[in-house]
Design goal:
The chain is built from 4 helices and 2 strands; from the N terminus they run βαβααα. By secondary structure, it is mainly alpha-helical. It has a domain of about 55 residues. About 10% of the residues are buried.
Length: about 100
């Protein structure tokens, strides 16, 4: 896969144990999954603050311009002050980031 990926798994997931997360991560070319101790199958429900922090940290490390070029898409600037649509356009517009 040629785009950034983050795999987060619940350490207490009894439906799909953490080994599955590590296998998925390795299949994506990553070293492994981030395992949240105490979180179950619904890690986003069990540990929302940890998920938010991990996602924020991950997003801050992504080079959007080079990533968009590698995956063949256009980087878009999102106007989060309004409705979450791309700045200067409708929800279907693909405005390049300036």
């Amino acid at each position: 896969m040629s785009c950034p990926a983050l795999v987060v798994w619940g350490g207490a997931d009894r439906l799909l144990p953490p080994a599955h997360g590590h296998e998925l991560a390795r299949g994506l070319g990553l070293d492994g999954a981030v395992v949240l101790d105490g979180a179950g199958h619904l890690a986003t429900v069990d540990s929302p603050a940890a998920i938010a922090a991990l996602t924020w940290d991950f997003a801050q490390r992504i080079d959007v311009e080079s990533t968009a070029g590698r995956i063949g898409g256009a980087a878009r600037r999102i106007d989060v002050e309004s409705t979450g649509t791309p700045a200067g356009g409708s929800a279907g517009a693909a405005n390049e980031r300036s």
